[in-house]
Amino acid sequence: MNHTSDPVVEVVDLRKSYGAKHALDGLDFDIRTGEIFALLGPNGAGKSTTIEILEGFRTPTSGHVRVLGASPWNADAAWRARVGVVGQSTADIDRFSARELLRHFAGFYPDPRDPDEVLEAVGLAPHAGARVRTLSGGQKRRVDVALGIIGRPELLFLDEPTTGFDPEARRRFWTLVESLRTDGTTILLTTHYLDEAEHLADRVGVIAGGRLVEIGTLRELGGPEARTPVVSWRDADGHHRSERTHTPAALVSELAAALGGEPPELSVHRPTLEDIYLDLLEAHAATAGSSATVDEHGGRPTTNAGTATR
């Protein structure tokens, strides 16, 4: 997809410190008009701090930040009407119905979406009159999403938006996000579901230890060799061997000819986004001298529709 050259978000040497702890240590990136930019990283990497600064809820220690042409922490009500936020938790809205909430919040914006159309888009139309307290966790999450898009935002922050969604609901939500992009909405997405980033994002930034490890399109991420297939087998001496090659079929044929048949435990693996992501984190951890940077909770990213944690 083509995007205009005008950046909606500009971040230069962004830093945030809490005493001696550096939550953000010199981030540089931009987000272009009409693109979906995914910010990926393990727990404690600095994703939430970055987003809260861009949303205007937190101030940086230093650095240059412009969002929709303004410093977000000094922005006025007109600027806030141009921004949509889908955070990680539902506010204290349990006594209202989803339809009541959307009709109420629509009144805060100059050009809101139709509340009933939004309810349909997020899959809540059958539950529009139900009190939020009676909804399931996934349904409450859809209320968060509905509130985030009711104002027809130019820039939408989606912070792990599909946590708690079942597979069908996630797919419907992806379609909704793609329709928002088609309408011209710029989107900043954080997610632990790497298939979600792979499906939606135009570009990806990987953050670890408060630093941007790499940024680029999915094809660019990790460099030209990152997606080179890996052929693995066990040789005649019983040793496990592996080799990266752009021609796996030719290598398998050579091995079969040399060994007089298919090598034991033969496999051909084409690196996925998860493989590349983990390699980037491990390389960063090695450079930083601490494996704790990879994930402070020892977790791995989620690649299916299971519940992600942060």
From TrEMBL:
<dbReference type="InterPro" id="IPR017871">
    <property type="entry name" value="ABC_transporter-like_CS"/>
</dbReference>
<keyword id="KW-1278">Translocase</keyword>
<feature type="compositionally biased region" description="Polar residues">
    <location>
        <begin position="301"/>
        <end position="310"/>
    </location>
</feature>
<dbReference type="InterPro" id="IPR003439">
    <property type="entry name" value="ABC_transporter-like_ATP-bd"/>
</dbReference>
<dbReference type="InterPro" id="IPR027417">
    <property type="entry name" value="P-loop_NTPase"/>
</dbReference>
<dbReference type="GO" id="GO:0005886">
    <property type="term" value="C:plasma membrane"/>
</dbReference>
<keyword id="KW-0813">Transport</keyword>
<protein>
    <submittedName>
        <fullName>ABC transporter ATP-binding protein</fullName>
    </submittedName>
</protein>
<dbReference type="InterPro" id="IPR003593">
    <property type="entry name" value="AAA+_ATPase"/>
</dbReference>
<keyword id="KW-0046">Antibiotic resistance</keyword>
<keyword id="KW-0067">ATP-binding</keyword>
<keyword id="KW-1003">Cell membrane</keyword>
<dbReference type="InterPro" id="IPR050763">
    <property type="entry name" value="ABC_transporter_ATP-binding"/>
</dbReference>
<keyword id="KW-0472">Membrane</keyword>
<feature type="domain" description="ABC transporter">
    <location>
        <begin position="9"/>
        <end position="234"/>
    </location>
</feature>
<dbReference type="Pfam" id="PF00005">
    <property type="entry name" value="ABC_tran"/>
</dbReference>
<feature type="region of interest" description="Disordered">
    <location>
        <begin position="288"/>
        <end position="310"/>
    </location>
</feature>
<dbReference type="GO" id="GO:0005524">
    <property type="term" value="F:ATP binding"/>
</dbReference>
<keyword id="KW-0547">Nucleotide-binding</keyword>
<dbReference type="GO" id="GO:0046677">
    <property type="term" value="P:response to antibiotic"/>
</dbReference>
<dbReference type="GO" id="GO:0016887">
    <property type="term" value="F:ATP hydrolysis activity"/>
</dbReference>
